[in-house]
Inverse folding.
């Protein structure tokens, strides 16, 4: 059986896989630039769509994560697929 790829954003993954790749600044217009080496490493290209996901605790945002939309679709399938299959069986 092939080992399932671990994702940093996956709550079941090992948090040690997460690391700081860069520090970015936000300009007066609220924009920021992802460094080229980070974009290359993440295979983010011009025109790619990224979902902005935040994690809040006590009404304060503690973490903001960018996920390529195609990766988000796969994560939703991974989570929702088993639930949908169970619902189909119970009918």
């Amino acid at each position: 059986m092939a080992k399932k790829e671990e994702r940093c954003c996956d709550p079941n993954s090992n948090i040690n896989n997460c690391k700081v790749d860069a520090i970015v600044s936000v300009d007066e217009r609220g924009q920021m630039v992802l460094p080229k080496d980070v974009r290359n490493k993440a295979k983010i290209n011009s025109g790619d769509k990224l979902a902005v996901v935040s994690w809040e605790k006590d009404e304060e945002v503690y973490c903001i994560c960018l996920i390529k939309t195609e990766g988000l679709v796969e994560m939703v399938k991974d989570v929702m697929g088993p639930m949908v299959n169970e619902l189909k069986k119970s009918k």
Q: What stands out?
A: The chain has two helices and two strands. The chain has one domain: 15-90. The radius of gyration is 17 Å.
